[in-house]
Amino acid sequence: MSQIEFRNVHHAYADRLVLDGIDLTLTEGRVGIVGANGSGKSTLARMINGLVDPTSGVVSIDGLHVAKNRRAVRRKVGFIFTNPDNQIVMPTVGEDVAFTLRRTGLSKDQVATRTAAALDRFGLSELAEQPAHLLSGGQKQLLAMASVIVGDPAIVVADEPTTLLDYRNARMINEMLAGLDQQVVVVTHHLHLLENFDRVIVIEDGRVYADDTPQRALDAYRALLG
Ligand SMILES: Nc1ncnc2c1ncn2[C@@H]1O[C@H](COP(=O)(O)OP(=O)(O)OP(=O)(O)O)[C@@H](O)[C@H]1O
């Protein structure tokens, strides 16, 4: 697994401090991040692939300073948004998955082979020629995952990937995430999804409130919520 490091990370939007001294070293295969609305989870998750840079402090991946190596970091860290519409960029399902492999130096055949494998893995092969915007919510999230995984990142960060889905689709996406070879960091309000994770971090008011096994961290979080 990779080593994701936060060293004395602070972040403010204008004059509002939303992360207040985060120190974490994440090396586990499955890490969950939970916390109340507005506690800073998305901001923290976005720092792992440089979508947000800290106001102060350093985030690094295997020693690579994220803010100074954005391109290299983006190859290592795939990001799955809550709303897949935010990351579907091409007209058809197949083109969207292939788009990730642009500028990788792969031949047309290699792109086609890897795209086909990713579509197959996420059950989308038969939809390859379909307009992406016609997919259901669950299928769109599968497409977003396929488009990230086809690039073979070392780390997948998912920010509330199941929030917009019904229970069945949420379970399906979660099983897909659980089955990935990659190191996975998931931000979620669906606490039951984290039961088999290696580590769960509770963020409260921009700080690490608990950092423990899922059971202990989630107990602490539930107690905090009252
Ligand atoms: N681009 C931005 N500009 C200004 N303020 C922002 C921005 N993004 C987030 N914030 C604010 O920063 C705080 C932390 O937001 P963040 O999205 O990191 O929290 P979160 O824990 O992920 O919340 P939620 O569970 O509601 O998604 C919130 O008060 C939010 O309104």
Descriptive notes:
The model has no long low-confidence stretch (mean pLDDT 95). The chain is α/β, with parallel strands linked by helices and 226 residues long. Helix 3 runs parallel beside helix 5, helix 4 crosses helix 5 and helix 5 runs parallel beside helix 6. The strands form two sheets. Strands 6-7-8-3-9-10 form a six-stranded mixed β-sheet, with helices on both faces. A four-stranded antiparallel β-sheet has the order 2-1-4-5, covered by helices on one side. Strand 4 and strand 5 form a beta hairpin. The protein has seven helices and ten strands. The longest helix has 14 residues. The chain has a single domain, classed as Rossmann fold, CATH 3.40.50.300. Adenosine-5'-triphosphate binds next to helix 1.
Q: For the residues shown, what is the average pLDDT?
A: 95
Radius of gyration: 17 Å
* End-to-end distance: 35 Å
Beta percentage is 25-35%
CATH architecture: 3-Layer(aba) Sandwich
- Which blocks of ≥5 consecutive residues have pLDDT under 50? none
Number of folding domains?
A: 1
* Elements, N to C (H/E): EEEHEEHEHHHEHEEEH
Biggest β-sheet strands, sense, barrel: 6 strands, mixed
Q: Biggest sheet: strands side by side, in what order?
A: 6-7-8-3-9-10
| Name given to the CATH homologous superfamily | P-loop containing nucleotide triphosphate hydrolases
- The CATH class name reads Alpha Beta
- CATH-derived topology: Rossmann fold
Structural class by secondary-structure content: alpha/beta
Bound molecules: adenosine-5'-triphosphate
What overall geometry do the principal axes of the alpha carbons give? Answer: globular
Number of helices: 7
